[in-house]
Amino acid sequence: MLNALTVKVEMDGDVAWVTIDNPPVNATSQSVRQGLVDSVAEVQGARVAILRCRGKTFIAGGDMSEFDAPPVEPHLPDVIRMIEDSPVPFIALMHGNVLGGGFEVAMGCAWRIAAPGTGFGLPEVNVGLIPGAGGTQRLPRLIGMEAAIDIACKGRVVKADEMLKLGGIDRVAKDPEAAVREFITALPARPGSVSRRSVPAFEPELLEESKATLLKNAKGQKSPLENLKALTWALEPFETGQPKERARFVELKAAPESRALRHVFFAERAVAKPEAIKGAVPRELSSIAVVGGGLMGAGISAAALAAGLSVTLIERDSAAAQNAHDRVADLLRAAVQRDKMSNQGMDSALEAFRAVDDYAVASDADLAIEAVFEDLDVKRDVFARLAEVMDSNAILATNTSYIDPQDIFDGIANPERCIGLHFFSPAHIMKLLEIVKMPRTSPEVLATGFALGKRLRKVGVLSGICDGFIGNRMLTAYRREADYLLADGATPSQVDAAMRGFGMSMGPYEVQDLTGLQIAWANRKRNAASRDRNERYVTIADQLCEMGRLGQREGKGWYRYEPGNRKPQRDPDVEALIESCSAEQGITRRTFTDDEITGRLLAVLANEGARIVEEGIAERAADVDMVQIHGYGFPRWRGGPMHYAKEIGWDVSRKVMNLVAEESPGSWILAREKAPV
Ligand code: NAI
Predict the structure, then answer these.
(1) Whose CA is nearest to atom 44 of ligand 1?
(2) Which residue out of 372, 402, 403, 475 has the highest number of ligand 1 atoms within 8 Å of its CB and is therefore the one to mutate?
(3) Residue 426, preceding peptide bond in cis (omega within 30° of 0)
(4) Which residues cross the membrane (predicted)?
(5) Closest Cα to residue 516, out of 561, 573, 469?
(6) Could you give the domains of the chain?
């Protein structure tokens, strides 16, 4: 019987040991729920029952693979109620993570004992949900409303020591099993069930203040506020609050936000295992070389040092090497200030770091990442010099944004060791890493790229070769359509506000002002000769650049900026320039609603993403979503542009794209009719 495998009861005198064994994380799947029901019956007659889990963790959540199907009995709220009402009291003996359904089960027990470092949380909010088995009803009763808001609405994981102080657990013990044996020798009086307590008094303004903060930070995501609302039901009797929580959980599970966030959850795991590295074993890396210590090279070095790698940074001359050293040290100091690194961590990182102007110093590195100027000859020269001093098998990686890596590595011996590692700025913070495969890159080298990405806490996404790889190619399409909208009647502030309203962290024009307009300008100039003459070309951005309006740093770009203030202000000069561009091209300007703007820009993203999948540049549509979410500020709770197109219907997205293509003939290549997967 399956249940016999997942939950086992063993009697030791008058003590019942109930052990869950459901690898990898002892999720509350159907067999565990049934096993718990059976065990409540089996332990009757004992003096006390101890609930524990095998493996590396206590129950660390629900089984999300069951979420798309209708719920199957027994339901978790009923199981927990049985544990709570059992005449034989249960003690939860916990280690690892006690999350979601696991925390809910633990709160149904009479006592809770945990190993040091055990993490407690209700991460349902991160997948668009509220807890569905009494989590929002028992938690405020157990630890008070303020701490419950932190955990349920913000998804914060609280460690055992803090949970003990909050009163959520009874004991933290190095050897929890020994502690529980001692605890049961003289069992204290059984405390009242958590569900029958009332929520301790809290400041009257707490709920309103929390609502305002959550609303501000949610950027359109609903689940933080849903959790807050559910917590307030704990002020009612459990008998009315808990059914409300359950009903809302079931509704939210079927709603778009949770579907999108669950898609992202699974996509993040799938993206790390592309077909192209199946069976390949990554190489061990201990020291790397970074060539070029500018904006990107410094960020990459800081990320690698934080991950415990030794880094040799190579610059053009000793002054540039000193500058690069200072830049990296500043980044590490800032990490300490943000509490991302300890002082001791910074000291050992600095010990593992050197910045030099001599390539020979990097001869023993396992891998080199080049981040010098975006210039083919400079990059080719760097790799020729690296190839001379490094082992003939050492991995060579380029961080180029747009140059074809095949041109960069042309002529290098052992081309199977060459790869693109495309980081995003700021490289020590941004999660995305595009791992670029060339036709001859070996699976082992690719797998090493993925392992490095993981070590640097990045989301690695495999990309083939095309202009801009996955992300910047989509960005080019997105910006092109945004410029068409400007020429046809919209304003930068309207486009930005519409996209922010959709949930993007910033609109396309604010982003350009923040990062500077010059790189894209240089790119347009570089591509001018090869541009398709039938393509509609809008010159507004070029004109801004020619006027020296290069973005925030110059105090003006698509917007103007007051000195010392980063808030974009609408600029009548820019709007007049846009209008005159429209007039010159004989365009009668018209109005666009926010929905028309977001509809068009999202259709363009989905179309370009579909083409990228069709061409085999990305392995799957979900990979495209990961690039957009982790590199371009696409709202996680919308699931990415490909998931969003699927959600509204691929045919609906196609219809908008057809309209976009009709409005700007010669500018767009349409993806195939079939939705990409
Ligand atoms: P940067 O201009 O800030 O830094 C380049 C550095 O390379 C300078 O410090 C320069 O002294 C050094 N350098 C130049 N030639 C060298 C040589 N022969 N040997 C050693 N060092 C040399 O440029 P940034 O922004 O860091 O970009 C570097 C690369 O990263 C470019 O290929 C760029 O396309 C790519 N990239 C840039 C992103 C960005 O947002 N800036 C994002 C992703 C990739």
Answers:
(1) 401
(2) 372
(3) yes
(4) none
(5) 561
(6) 7-254 (3.90.226.10), 285-463 (3.40.50.720), 471-663 (1.10.1040.50)
Q: How do residues 471-499 score in pLDDT, each as one tens digit? A: 999 999 999 999 999 999 999 999 999 99
Cβ neighbourhood burial of 3 (10 Å; 0-12, 13-18, 19+): middle
User: What integer pLDDT is reported at residue 529 of this predicted model?
Assistant: 87
Residues found in the chain: 677
pLDDT computed for residue 531 by the predictor: 85
Place of tokens 């791992």: 435
In this structure, which residue's CA is closest to atom 28 in ligand 1? 371
Ligand 1 pocket residue status of 401, Cβ below 6 Å: yes
Task: Tell me, in angstroms, the distance from the centre of ligand 1 to residue 351's CA.
Answer: 24
Which candidate, 342, 298, 287, 348, places its Cα nearest to that of 320? Answer: 298
Report whether residue 516 contacts ligand 1, using a CB cutoff of 6 Å: no
d(C-alpha 103, C-alpha 521), whole Å: 53
Active site residue 203: no
Q: For residue 550, what are the β-bridge partners? A: none
Q: 293 alpha carbon to ligand 1 midpoint, in Å?
A: 7
* Residue range 197-219, pLDDT digits in tens: 999 999 999 999 999 999 999 98
Please give the Cα distance from 35 to 37 (Å, whole number). 5
Six-digit token string for 123: 């991460």
Q: Is 535 tagged catalytic?
A: no
